Amino acid sequence: MIGELLKKTRQEQNLTQKQLAEKSGISFVSINRIENGNPPRLSIIEKIFSAMGKRVTINLSDYTEIHG
Fold first, then answer.
1. What is the spatial distance between Cα 32 and Cα 24, in angstroms, rounded to a whole number?
2. Residue 25, exposed/middle/buried by CB under 10 A (0-12, 13-18, 19+)?
3. CA nearest 37: which of 10, 7, 17?
4. Digits of tens for pLDDT over the chain (68 positions)?
5. Which DSSP string do the residues of 10-58 spell out, in sequence order?
6. CA distance 24 to 42
7. Which helix (H) or strand (E) holds 5?
């Protein structure tokens, strides 16, 4: 879900994964993994979206399972 949103937002801003990596300070590999469904840490998501001028809000009620 977050990966799809990341990809959509990045493409709307006409950024490649490499350009977003440079702009956000997050590696290209990390951005690629997130867009392909690997769950990121919240701090990583905040940095990436902040680099695109966006703010992230997480609604915990969307999660049905808690692991730990």
1. 13
2. exposed
3. 7
4. 889 999 999 999 999 999 999 999 999 999 999 999 999 998 999 999 999 999 888 776 665 554 45
5. HHHTT--HHHHHHHHTS-HHHHHHHHTTPPPPHHHHHHHHHHTT-----
6. 14
7. helix 2-12
Is the pTM higher than 0.85? The answer reads: no
Contact assessment for residue 4 and residue 36, using Cβ atoms and an 8 Å cutoff? no
d(CA 36, CA 53): 22
Cα distances (Å, whole numbers) of residue 27 to 40, 47, 60, 64: 12, 11, 27, 30
